[in-house]
Automatic annotation (TrEMBL):
NCBIfam families: 3a0106s01. One of its GO terms (cellular component) is ATP-binding cassette (ABC) transporter complex. This is Sulfate/thiosulfate import ATP-binding protein CysA. SUPFAM superfamilies: MOP-like, P-loop containing nucleoside triphosphate hydrolases. It comes from the Bacteria. Keywords: ATP-binding, Cell membrane, Hydrolase, Membrane, Nucleotide-binding, Sulfate transport, Translocase, Transport. InterPro entries: AAA+_ATPase, ABC_SmlMolc_Importer, ABC_transporter-like_ATP-bd, ABC_transporter-like_CS, Mo/tungstate-bd_C_term_dom, P-loop_NTPase, Sulph_transpt1, TOBE-like. Its EC number is 3.6.3.25. One of its GO terms (molecular function) is ABC-type sulfate transporter activity. It is an enzyme of class 3 (hydrolase). Gene3D superfamilies: P-loop containing nucleotide triphosphate hydrolases.
Amino acid sequence: MSIRLENISKTFGQFQALSPMSLNIDEGEMIGLLGPSGSGKTTLLRIIAGLEGANSGRIQFGDRDVTNQHVRDRHVGFVFQNYALFRHMTVADNVAFGLEVMDAKQRPNKTEIQHRVKHLLEMVQLGHLANRYPSQLSGGQKQRIALARALATKPDVLLLDEPFGALDAKVRKELRRWLRSLHDEIGFTSVFVTHDQEEALELSDRVVVMSNGHIEQIDEPAQLYAQPNSRFVFDFLGNVNVFEGKLTQSRLHNHNAWITAPSSDVPMNSGQLYIRSHELSLHTEASKIANLPLKVVAVNPIGAEVRVELAPHEWQSEQIWEADLTHSEYDRNPVKRGEIVYAEPRNGYFFRENSHQAPEQVSWQSRSLDETVK
Ligand SMILES: Nc1ncnc2c1ncn2[C@@H]1O[C@H](COP(=O)(O)OP(=O)(O)OP(=O)(O)O)[C@@H](O)[C@H]1O
């Protein structure tokens, strides 16, 4: 079932929780609502569900206008972070609950309910736990049961509010892989809320990045990562180093540090260069591309890479820099805590000063000092 939101807005008293926003979700799509706390993700999800009324706008499920429809009539399944299972009911009864309370005209008969519950429990791979009570289940198992229960009534749309938020990292990873394959197998349309960028990028067909009650960007994960259209999205999606520079003579200067500046058709300007932590290499001296002295603060060999934390040396940056090196890069030049090293960027994104436009992508590969960069 496709979902179409048109000019949806929401205020709580004087507070504008959602500015007017529109969003089209295709049938069978899995959409992640990603944003910091308070950005309006849950409010938007609750409006789609019908648990909250919007102040303006229209909501359509397929051809059906559901704007004024009660939650009960929208055919949505809902999964919350805190499982919300009935403690006094067995697993099987929890899953059957939504079917048992249907009005008589729609309610399947007893045998059909039993059959459907059995099938759902097999689908979430917990058939052997049908007679247990929620207190006898692990967090991951409870959340699978919550999902089976949400799917029991064959909803048109499945809405999930931080479904894995209460689980530890390993179970979380397992469950999200499992949810994605279940989604692909059954083909329901789902919208989930998360503030975990890794979760959003891994699970979603498209990610909706939200901040302060509005949509910053909607894109497929790879596109979002490759072309973040604002500083906010950039900052929110992983480790980034920021070089704030004043432009003089084709170099961006920050005290004694400099990076050769990107060029473009637009007149040059001062601004900020955003460089991801895996787009830096470390050297024993400055190069033609950059003079970026940094003091090594920490070296963490974490799994596939070595993360080096770096403090700007005789120039200014609001945050500590980070370089993610491959183990072989690190082995060639094993930097030590306390050493001064020189960073060289490979690729970056340039935000012009006083501009709200999307950044320009820049690259320094195989270039000399006076070359400009595309
Ligand atoms: N019932 C309410 N009454 C007043 N303000 C509310 C209400 N519900 C939400 N808000 C406010 O609206 C804003 C958006 O809240 P919402 O729960 O949608 O954010 P969120 O992005 O889901 O955050 P989190 O990740 O912390 O759950 C917040 O500032 C919140 O305080």
